[in-house]
User: Fold these one by one.
Assistant:
Number 1:
Amino acid sequence: MPDLVSSNQSIYSSIRRIISLSVVLFIAALTSGCLSYEQQAHPTPTTTVHNYKHVVVAQPSRYKSSAMYEVTHEEDADIWQRVRQGFQLQSLSDNNPRVDHQRLWFASRSKSIEMISERSSPYMYYIVESLAARDMPLELALLPMIESGYNPLAYSTSHASGLWQFIPSTGRNFKLAQSHWYDGRRDIMASTQAALDYLEYLHRMFDNDWLLALAAYNSGEGTVARAIKRNIERNLPTDYWNLNLPAETQAYVPKLLAVAQLINAPEAYDLALAPIANEPYFTQIALKQHMNISRLAQLARLQEDELVQLNPAYKQGIVMGGPKHLLVPLDNAQQLKEKLATIKPSDHMQWQQYTVRSGDNLSVIASRYHVPLALIKDINKLRNNNLRIGQVLNIPQGTTALAAASATPASPTLVKRAYKVRRGDTLSHIAARQKVSVNDIKRWNKLSSNALKVGQNLTLMASNTPSASANNPKSIRYKVRPGDSLYVIAQRHKVSLKQLKNWNPRVSTALKPGQTLSLYL
């Protein structure tokens, strides 16, 4: 005979689930209508469900942005080993044909995974620490690989932005501010905490089922709740694998589980993950003033794009409108602190926005605000003097600061220098050694292609100022250390990743301790 008690409990459980889902769907219906959810007012109840990607109104999680890097795991020198040890979802993907299909697809594109793993190196430690502090599966550290390819500037056709791909409304619901100056969806720390808050909320909503939570992260709670309700009504299983969900969501969870399988056994798939040290890469520096990112990069002795990668939320290249801090590589933090301490209050620059009106031109605007035209073009990254009505310009203010910002050093005199092509030379190698661009060399020598011949004479232009070192760059040999990656080495020596790769064309992203690299400094 069947167990009547167990049967009754099962029936009661199903009834409770139907009632719960009905409440969720009823609230979703109340807040929907014919217009998109973006166009509707968002109240602040604990659970208001919407049926498309990343939309939920919820009270903030009990977790706040924690003190940075409170947990350390010295036993794991490489972050990937620590990630593997924190996997919790692997048993859910065994012998699953949908996961197998995605795994084979990713395995055939291992170079893309390697590139994304290298791109993740500045962020991975912080994300892993944040997940570990909440005891969440470390497979979730791979979610930005699926969402954005670990590109903090990623922007989708549905207007989702950042590593975690929040759409505007969901970002606002999770207190990610968005303005002309700042977009919290691209803030590395703020968006990570918001994404984990959202995932935890979904996990609780779907009876602690991570696969359903991930499906809802992709397609919305309403979509998943309706699919579950349909299966309950038809007496069908209600786990993720048996739900009728949109095609993108059907592939979304298998993609994450497949990537986790590759990360779990990279050797089996000939996957060379970029080594990432299991230690903090960046720290916060408090800022009391609004400053240009390019100037901050100079003070920190960093390339501007390296600072932008850590602070992509500042949309205009100016630290303004967001939290009063900057993320800086640990190696450069002390340098920046010391430089900031020497800046006088009178040197602080203020900013204002100006919206271009009919009849405006750059000369008129520059004259009106007593700002050099060239400075306005530089700050707003304008390639020419053309403006369009409604365009928003950032205008600097402040006499001392403006004088310093607009002061340009005298242009150095360029002199011609002959160079004879040697065996093994390429335009990229020559450009890297001389610290010029390939296009410059092609323009100086009227080259139509990158092809060179041994013995060919090239004309190079070099500065005759004593400070210019491009003529005689110093060649050094660098021995790879445990935890190094090409990105980390480039950051450490204040060169770009592209330069480092040009200097070492035969070196893959999979570095080994003891391996030597060539640098021209």
Number 2:
Amino acid sequence: MPKISLVIPVYNTGKYLSETLDSVINQTFSDWEAICIDDGSTDNSLEILREYAKKDKRIKVITQKNCGVVTARNHAIKYATSQYIYPLDSDDIIVPDCLEKLYGAMMAGHGDIITCRVMYFGRETTEMVLPKPTKHNLSHDNCLVNAALFRKSDFEKIGGYDTKFNLALEDYDFWLNMVVNLGAQIYRIPEILFYYRLKDQAEARNFQHCAEHASLKQKMAQKYPAIKRQHVLDKLTWPIRKIIRFLFRIDGNRVKICKTIKIRFKRTPINLFYFNSVSNFGDLLNIDIMDKLPHYSVRQTNIKHADIVAIGSLLQNVVCKKMSVPQKISRYVHTPLIVYGSGFIHDTENTVPVRRLDVRAVRGQLSLAKLKSLKHVKLHKDLAIADPGLLAPLLTDVSHIQKKYDLGIIPHYVDKDNPLLNKINVKNAVVLDIMQPPHIFLTQLAQCRTVISSAMHGLIAADALGIPNMRMTLSDNITGGDYKYNDYYSAFGITEHAVINLRQRSFSDTDINTIKKMYQIKPEQVRQKQNELLKVFPYKTKDKICL
């Protein structure tokens, strides 16, 4: 009997379904079953499910006429043989160690409902801000997404998902039912283990039925009288609760009285500047690596208010041709901007920095030479010359992943639909989507023996994982041309790097050995760069970080 049953309702999500199922198959925790229920799909969803079921016996497929997600979940859970249930929508993604950490928290007795932090991806990429998952907060608004681990026995006690909420908010009602009627405790793992896909409004079920949310919440108030009483009580006791929170603090199981008034500062989040207009692996690494290292919260901001710039050709945004007097004054008002591995996109002359710069790491020698020519730039005594994308292995453990493909093909997002990709004739090859969440991309990348990529951070991630790789060119559409690639390779002392120009030639199986022979970066060089980056990391870390 498996330990966890994943319940995956499927309705016309064929274009996303493979990503979801791959994220399940690649879990480090292997003792699971996936109950996939097709809710009368009219696209190719059922075909995809059956293909995966043939490959992996842990995936079970059942079908029903289109009845909606609530009926589908209830129906699928009846077939579950595990003690623990994990609902997962067929367009969302879980990171490789998600089930392992959820199950570990459940076994440690941390709660009856185990959830985690959530990242949006798809239409935009940012962390989903959710209230602390307490009974009090839950009485006001939902604190969880639909994906959380719970006991099947608790599901049966409350009668499953309520079909009255088939249009929307069925998960909110389900969590309320468990907390109010069973006294279930919620525990949130302080890590991003779940990626919630933001789709176009035409595809998003919650948006389509947002008009019904108010009436559905009225149904909840009638169903759970305790909620209404809680709202009235909150209004009456709000001033008292504020005073109590100020005067008392909880230390473990003890309540201590604050005899002296102290000003308490919350740990401020890191203000990070990075490009987020497109879901691109290199840019997404910024928030994931920053979040992984310091145990601070991270938020995206503009260059004026940023504390740090890291992965990407971001230094072009830090300089300008001419500054006004107010801008010059502002440069001294703001704290210095930390540079942690950024670079320039192209060579520029006669520019000045709009902020004072505290340079801890820089991508390569070309960017370093440019920084040395500028005023208001302070170089760290242990300056690292490396791209922080080399720290990508911190995000997920890929040591258990077996090689499946002779070649991984990574087109830059501007080259994604380039017809020249058809000139690659390798039998055992896979095309990797650079716009996927980093954890998923790295898991798929680890399955490749060699890589060709027109995306620079596809090459950098391959270097970080020790996979021989070579740059390919498909067009002139990548901003900056050769500059950023030359800059990155200069950190390893490489003045000329090999390039496969698919506008002039094709690529076949026999060329794979050429990649291995011409690959110049050694594992010990990568480890040295990783250690240098960790040494100059500008924020305190909770634990010692090792690679």
Number 3:
Amino acid sequence: MIQNSQILIPFLVNSIDDEQWQDVNQWLQIIAQQNSGQAWLIDRQGYLIMNYPPIFGEEGHHVQFVHSERLMEGEIVSQRVGSPYFERPMLLLGLPLFENGDGVEAALLIFSPVAGINSTIRHVETMMLYSSILAILLAMGLAYRWSKVLASPLQKMQKVALEMSEGSFGKTIELKSNNQEIDDLAKSMNHMSRKLKETMDDLVQEKNKLNYILTGMDEGVLTINSQREIILINKSLKGMLNLEDEDTGQIFTEVVNDDSIIKVFEQSLQQNQPSYTEITIEEDKTKKRILVHCTPIYSHKEKLWGVVGIFQDISERWRFEQLQKDFVANVSHELKTPLSSIRGAAEMLADEVVESPQDRRRYLKIILDEAKGLTNLVDGVLDLAEFDSRTEAKSKEKLEAGETLQNVAFVFKKGVRLDENRLQIKKPEKPLLVRANPLNIKQVLLNLLDNAFKFSPDNAPIELGALEQDGEVKFWVKDRGIGIPSEEIENVWERFYKADKARNRQKFGSGLGLAIVKEIIEQHKGRVFVYSKPNEGSTFGFFLPQVKD
């Protein structure tokens, strides 16, 4: 309002200076119309010079208002006035026109309706409000769209990240974004996902290899950390110690009940050096000998991490060592006793202590019998050495099982003068043929009959038989003797083995008979068997492949 009026004031002043009152009236009209009100021209004393539109009958009317003194001092004033000259409140704007050293010569009063101004203000405020709302909505729309543009790829990245955290590696993010930073982030996550998948695949492959190796090992493996927790245990050890599948993660002293095993692991943990021990496990009335070897495991910082124990089943070696000890003892006994007898009898004869011919013959018989026993012992060892030197029997021919049983029974009865009814023969119902060396098979059956005779009570029956079974011919010798303990059965085929360590050598032999039987049958592509119960008797026998006509 002030700026618009000040533009026209110079024209108004020029018209006043030229006393062009008609022009002055026109400029007042323009100013009044421009402000939708009235324009008054007053002198320094406040008397009206001219106004538009005219509201007074004559000029020279004195105009009074609150800030008139300030206006006459050269200030621009404005105020709201309620005058009897107007029907409604007006806004007064006073502008000084002529100024000199003594003050203002004249002033322009512009009256504009307050209602119009308020309407304009409200209109402007409404426009500003709508503009603000529109700007806010536009900003929210742009922000929402921008957030969607950002949120969509970020949500995809979050989904892939969650899947990766759950172990689903190799997932990739497919994006078509205009944001370079988001594209770079997606590419980095895709690269990381692929690398993690490759790494995890390698780790799984290595773990599977380790599992395959541990599963295929006959040796048991047990690994514990420094807190004594079970980290790894393979299937073989679970079978050895009868452990459960869920033992991993438990304290091994709560799982393993053998003090010797606990002691050797604790020794390695405390002394930081390898240690070993041997333990014996009872299983199904048999004994297993286990070698336990423990080795400390260190981390990359040379700090003790735990201990790995290898459990090796050395039952066969241990049993062989025990048999070797028994072999030495048996050989010593088998040689020492007859040699002592021979030496004693020879000394008696050499010193001529024995005078009667009858006593001399008795001592000579002792020497002869002991020499025969040593000869049999040496022959047995030589037979075994001969069988060991070849893999298959020689001079094999077709033998009929029933005829073979009959011939062996005849020889055995004559040799030991056995009662006719004591030896029972179970011949097969039809002819059965095998391909074998007749002398070897005869030797096998005679050895088995000899053992049955030696270990059976007097007058106890002995059974010799053969039958067809699953394409093979089964031969057996059954007695009602003292039997064999179950824990000793697996050893009866060993050389020099004797179940009764205190038995008399002359009556029971040297322990080579069954070893010779096993060697002969295996060279005939057969297999031996034994069934026995203490105090109920034993059944020894073998299978040979059947031959068709």
Number 4:
Amino acid sequence: MAPVLAKVAPAHRTYDLKVATLLGLESLFLEETQQRTRRHATLEDGGPSTGTVSLRREEFLLRAYALHRRALPALRKTLKDQGGYLLHVDGTETAGSPVVFVAWDEWSGLVLDARVLDTENADEIAAFFRELEAALGRPRGLVSDMGTGILKAVRQVWSGLPLQLCQFHYVRDVGKDLFEKLEGEVRRKLLGTRVLARLNELTPGKEEDWQGSGRRCAEELERLLEDAEPRWMRILQDHVLGPRERASRFPFELTYGTIARQVWSVAPLVHELAMWNVGRSVLLGSLAKADGLLGKLAEDGEFTRLAYRVKTLTEAFGEYREALGVGRDVTGSDGEAVAVAAAEERRQVEEVLGRWEGVAEGIDDEEVRQGVRQRREAWEKRKGNLFVEVRDLRGRWREIERTNWRSEHGHREIRLSIRGRTRKGRTEEEMTRHGALMAVVGNWSREGYAKAMGWEREDIVRAMGTVSKEKLSEARRLKGRTRRCRSDVARAKHRDPMLREFLGILRKGSPTMREEIRAWMARREPLRQPLV
């Protein structure tokens, strides 16, 4: 794209709207950094500053979003012609930041609109839903996660609307209810014994690790075992301690529950190898210590009950998840999600639930029986929203995606784009400022967007130039703040002088104090001028 930029922004020029457009396209679709784009813009060192690049990129996003809003009547007609729209909604936030809330249509594949909300509460979401309906009409159905704010807002605005709950989020919530307490109990048990810390401290293979008269034998097998057994011990350490070093995928994988199962499984193997060494009159010290640590844990009655409970419930939960065709990742990137007809999924789930109810009755563990009952209760409560069927405006039954994977994938793409452009690992600030805008303007890369918006014969750059200051101000609603400002003075550099000024008024105590206080109250920080 560099030659194109050089053509529209030659040396000794002003940076017009075409430059803003191309800088915006680079940031959205090529993940160019500000420094690289600055060099591309003129192919010389005297190009725009990185600050100018940043402002022009933002200008592109604002103007492109304003154009999207202007063309909503054309989009409404397009959606009506295709039989209506099936709405997917999802919000993303990090560390208490505002929520980037995105709405997209499954049937056209287009992002319809987005907002930056203070929180994902019912009132803010309901207001957004009413705006969507006013602009695009009532959706034919809605797919969302298990967020209570979304569910309440749907009841407020679209009573009776077919509501499909994301099966991934449903299964995840069932797993959290099932394993949260159990994972905590196992964690406390393992950390309380300090077995994991002591196992981690072992250093297999050091010279002093080997002892015993049999070690003096010079046979080739003995020399080979001197290297093989320490390696076996290191593999054991990785196997038992490894789950703590991986990113958490709770509740689909239990960190300490997995460790407990693996300790329970390998303790007999460690003991067998230790006894085999005794028969050879040798001793691998690290192996003997591991045998003592894991053996003592495996003989602990409470630990054995917890490990068996984990094994039973994770097997039951895994079969339940597979019956619903849900993978461990909402985007399906793990390859485990399987699309199955709704009727077949229902049959599979009922079969799995019934079989495990029978198994649980034969197990002398009330916690296991309670966990199996929990799954049944969750299923009976939500099954009506897990296999929703939707008709379009022409009365035709339409297929429906039963997870929010596209929404989650969209959020991830934006974050990755921000990381690629800023070269920063943390994206909260940029995501809050531009995530909603980028979600909508990302439609530029989607097939059929120009036709849906009636732009096939329109000069888009020229059209962006016609966006008024008022519409740019409206577009700025999609720019969020990373930290909520409690006062009307948002910039730190203006707060200190204003605090001191007020105290100065009080200290002076002049006869015009009231007028001075009113003037202080009316004062605001200087606002950045809108882009024109």
